[in-house]
Amino acid sequence: MAKKEEKMKKELVCPECGSKDIINDPTSGETICKKCGYVFTDNIIDLTQDWRAFDSEQMSRRARTGAPITYSKHDLGLTTEIGKGILELHKVAPSKRAQYYRMTKWHKRLIRSKDRNLSYALSELQRVVSYLGLSRVIHEKIAKYYNEAVNKGLVRGRSIEAVIAALTYAVCREMGNPRTLEEIIEACNVEKREVGRAYRYLARELKLRILPIPPESFVPRFCSMLGLSDKVQAKALEILKKVEKKGLSAGKGPTGVAAAAIYIASILVGERRTQREIADVLGITEVTIRNRLKEIASKLGIEKEIEEKEMKQS
DNA sequence: AAGACGAAAGTGGTTGA
DNA sequence: TCAACAACTTTCGTCTT
């Protein structure tokens, strides 16, 4: 053990200036050349735990690290600064001090200009996510894509809001928890045209796979928004399955198909909602529900069933 | 009065030349 | 780039309950 330590000390020679005057700063854990300020990057951080825990309480008490790194903070939750305290200054040779000050200044400027865009975007994203009540996973994923988009220079010429809106739309869709464009627009207050354009562009550039939205992915959320029971939900899904099998939903707006299925299900189960109510929640018109309703009912041969139930309930 | 129905005209987006 | 096109919306008059 003692031998090992000695060996390590012997090897420490500053590659920058050749000086052997190396100190170990206990507050930062860095190994620094006292002459020129060179910081050794090899083996300076021990990434393993230096403690053990035998239950979860000990685990949380002994853990000294912070939150995990995250894409939803502009610098992954880790901020680097060039120290400006007296302590740091003393570690730098007087002849290098002026240079050190300049470095500090430029470093700050660099971080600001590069990150201003990102940090603004991420706070906007935070707002949108909480407005729409999206999960942590989705939030992270959007942030990750945004990082990617910025790195590829895809945000140029588009408003930050539009990009956030488009990515939100894309990720919700990808995760099988789609929001309608209308909902997104309401949360982001960006023009529909803008969002659509940004969406198509980003989807192409980031190679997001765009699949048509299956109508059933709207059912659970909208059913609960309408205060309908699980029974209605199950019925609506059952109807949609048949509809898809017959290829009735091809080319039709998924919300319209979902709306009709929910409408039919609500009647069949006996928790009727008016067309108006459903149309409002799904963001479509009654006319569309009626059109889908007619198609579905006739093709599935359940017109009579619906009519009967309708009579009973009025 | 409220809901459902359907015709007709208008709108925004996709497609194919 | 443009026109054709299908899906969907808006609007409105009518019918039913």
What does this structure look like?
With 314 residues, the chain is mostly helical. It is 59% helix and 3% strand. It contains 14 helices and three strands. It has helices at 2-11, 56-62, 86-90, 97-132, 136-151, 160-174, 181-188, 192-205, 219-225, 230-245, 254-269, 275-282, 286-300, 303-313; strands at residues 22-25, 30-33, 39-40. Strand 1 and strand 2 form a beta hairpin. Helix 10 (230-245) crosses helix 11. The chain binds a DNA duplex (17 and 17 nucleotides) through residues 192-193, 196, 251-253, 256, 274-276, 284-288, 290-291, 314.
Brief sketch in words of this structure:
59% of the residues lie in helices and 3% in strands.
Question: Ends: how far apart?
Answer: 88 Å
Apparent shape: elongated
**Number of strand segments:** 3
Largest sheet: 3 strands, antiparallel
- The order of strands across the largest sheet is 1-2-3
* Percent range for β-strand residues: under 5%
Rg over alpha carbons? 30 Å
Number of helices: 14
Alpha-beta content class: mainly alpha
Uncertain ranges: 1-10
Mean of the pLDDT scores?
80
- In N-to-C order, the SSE pattern is HEEEHHHHHHHHHHHHH
Measured as a percent range, the helix fraction is: 55-70%
